[in-house]
Design brief:
single chain; alpha/beta; Rossmann fold; 2 domains; 7-stranded parallel beta sheet; 7 strands; 14% strand; binds nicotinamide-adenine-dinucleotide
């Protein structure tokens, strides 16, 4: 379905981003990977699916590096047809204890980077009259939790950015939507489970069940494959009129 097209996925050396990159590669898209993790192994995994793969190590908190990544992707592959804004970090603390530099980093990486990649990708998408911008927000883009002020603010911002972008592109073949996962067992969440187990003196298994029980009524983690399946669907013609949506995949978290 995506043969001849190029997808750039930020933060795709692990977790959700890598899963989405692999699913888009399975549909034939060439892939630009990005992120700070083990990029050689990520690249090998995606190349095994028979597509061309490039990696750019841009730091999503640095607009000049983002510009370089977008320009280098366009010069290698012609243009970016599918942009997945996925890179993200987390920090947990109450507002009065929240380190300002962590606040700035979360807003830059989780929110502003999506603005910068989008502004560079949109002109060529408009010209081709086809494109997909998929922003990985969160259940925290729709509702809040305590101790996550920067993350919640950034993810609500991503949902707002998604709606504005979708409206600006409404009369073109370019769509913009957000995916809002609940808990997914990736390195980002594993860190929170480990911290909880240590703080409360409980096992990792107990900490996992407690974490799910607080928020996710299904008591099951959302999987990377489920999110990747939705990203692929958003690239199909069936999703041509899905615009500006914030689509929860959260085991019922935000239905409560
Ligand atoms: P992860 O830690 O496995 O992946 C994050 C990726 O972002 C990694 O590739 C990392 O190297 C990259 N990254 C971090 N800082 C970066 C920077 N400055 N520049 C470039 N890349 C950077 O986490 P994940 O759980 O796969 O998270 C992916 C996205 O999904 C994030 O936006 C996260 O907020 C969102 N999300 C995750 C969950 C969850 O439960 N895991 C739930 C909702 C939303």
């Amino acid at each position: 379905m995506l043969k001849g097209k190029t997808a750039l996925v930020t933060g795709s050396t692990s977790g959700i981003g890598l899963g989405i990159a692999k699913a888009l590669a399975q549909q034939g898209a060439n892939i630009v990977l990005n992120g700070f993790g083990e990029y050689e192994s990520a690249k090998t995994e995606v190349m095994a699916l028979g597509v061309e793969v490039d990696y750019h190590g841009a730091d999503m908190s640095k607009p000049d590096q983002i510009e370089d990544m977008m320009k280098s992707a366009a010069s290698k592959f012609g243009r970016v047809d599918v942009l997945v804004n996925n890179a993200g970090i987390q920090h947990v603390a109450q507002v009065e204890d929240f380190p300002p530099e962590k606040w700035d980093a979360i807003i830059a990486i989780n929110l502003s980077s999506a603005f910068h990649t989008s502004r560079h990708a949109i002109p060529a998408m408009r010209e081709a009259n086809w494109g997909r911008i998929i922003n990985i927000a969160s259940a925290h883009g729709l509702v809040a939790s305590a101790h996550k002020s920067a993350y919640v603010a950034a993810k609500h911002g991503v949902v707002g950015l998604t709606k504005s972008t979708a409206l600006e592109l409404a009369r073109t073949g370019v769509t913009c939507n957000a995916i809002c996962p609940g808990w997914v067992l990736t390195p980002l969440v594993q860190k929170q489970i480990d911290a909880r187990a240590e703080k409360e003196g409980i096992s990792i298994e107990r900490a996992q069940i407690d974490l799910l029980g607080e928020k996710q009524p299904s008591l099951q983690f959302t999987t990377v494959e489920q999110l990747a399946g939705l990203a692929v669907f958003l690239c199909t013609p069936a999703a041509d009129q899905v615009r500006g949506v914030a689509w929860a995949v959260d085991g019922g978290w935000t239905a409560q």
